[in-house]
Amino acid sequence: MDSSKTWPPFSRTSRFSVLPFHNPRSSHKKKVKHRDQENLDHSSPVDSLDRLRAGEGAQRPLNSHPSPTAGSFADLPFDVLARVAAAFDIPELWAASTVCRAWRDALRPLREAMMLLRWGKRFKHGRGVRSDPKRALESFLKGAERGSAAAMVDAGLMYWEMGRKEEGKALYARAAELGHPAGQCNLGICYLEADLVEPEEAVKWFFRAAESGNARAQYSLALCLHKGRGVKRNVADAARWYQRAAEGGNVRAMYNTYLCYSTGEGFHGI
């Protein structure tokens, strides 16, 4: 038989609802559905909810909300979407761009920023191209203009290394406000190393980044707790954050965790 045949065999023609074929099972399904609906209507309220929670109910509860659609996603304001996606990494950004056409169009500047970020790293570290710090900074700044928090962090780091600390701090602050953990951590370090030290602000940003899983911020927060810098001294909490940072791969935190265990400091009752 020719495998390129496009029309289905006769046994499957009942799937085409345009043609008035009689399906003997359809009347039986309607009767079963009607009977199940009557049972649901006459059952007790508790029993109905239990069945719905268990996935046995045939209908969605009246007070439930419909599942999101492409239209509801598209209604999200572009500026809100850009702010939410500013701290996304590449896989998250590409996934968000496939949600709907409106998101794809709104996130185009951030996708361009990701490409600029890649080129900036290549120019900075000489990966596949000749190292060129000037072009690296230009690429990072262009990415930052398009709203990428990661590009803000890299541009801020280059400014910091060049001694232009106020410009670097300003970029860290922008990235931190957008929720980028590395930007939050670096901003905390800026507050500790600035001419006018603000340890309380540093602890605030360390904590936000630490909660997001940034190992360097977890270690820095542990140091502040251990020394009572910007926060009340709490060795037990410091030991916990040392341990979390160590689990995240921070080598200094591993050593401090070892010291805490060897002396018993901070781990009593844990």
UniProtKB/TrEMBL annotation:
Residues 1-16 have a biased composition (Polar residues). Residues 25-34 have a biased composition (Basic residues). Residues 70-117 form the F-box domain. SMART domains: SEL1. Residues 1-51 are annotated as: Disordered. PANTHER family: OS04G0476000 PROTEIN, OSJNBA0022H21.17 PROTEIN. This is F-box domain-containing protein. It comes from Vanilla planifolia (Vanilla). The lineage of its organism: Eukaryota, Viridiplantae, Streptophyta, Embryophyta, Tracheophyta.
